[in-house]
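Local shape tokens

___
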Amino acid sequence: MNPFKRYTRTILVYSSGGSYNAAAIGGVLSGGWGDWDDETGWSKPEKTSPSNASELTTKQHAYPKKSIAHFANCEGRVEVYDLIRKKSRKAKPSDPIFCARRAWDQRSESGYMREIEDEFQELTDRTISNLEGVTRVSDKRVVGRFFALWYMRSRYNQLKDQEYILDGIEGDQLTLEQEEKLERDHYLYVRSGGRIPCRQLNGVLIQQKIDKFSEDLESIAGWGLISPEIWMNAA
């Protein structure tokens, strides 16, 4: 049996003053960062620079556009029921209703999350073509990791605060352009005054929870394929 694969990419932390930033971040995460029971008072996401030259993703899909597109009609839209407005409408897979707004960092979005998605999409294309379920150990793990990714992103898709203050940490005086370049290159960083963007903490938190949930899903014997039937009414 293949060993269980964790997506534990090296977490890079930028600091001009040694390793204290990394130690402080690790301490916060090990202590159970985040209050997710109270679902009121979510904060507005931080904006990028006007040009967004580093091309940071600001609208982040909890469920991938390609997967949503499988349910689209001939116009490329899916039927959506808006629970807040209590009405249905048709939406494209790129619609903001499917997206979080900078709830996790670019290291997560284009790093481990993208890797999990890509493996799943390759398996999905193959599975749909063959019209068969998923029973191989390696394929089951691909589906399990994707399910864990979807599950966690849908639950950790908003932030109570945009910054968290690390005790005893000075941080670095960075321009917005410098911050965006660091995030683009998958670095975590700490601003002056020990302030760290909460999306960075959330990205690591989601990664940890995906690892744990994926292990819990190891006991599933297989994943099935549900195919809709199309009924044609005679004229």
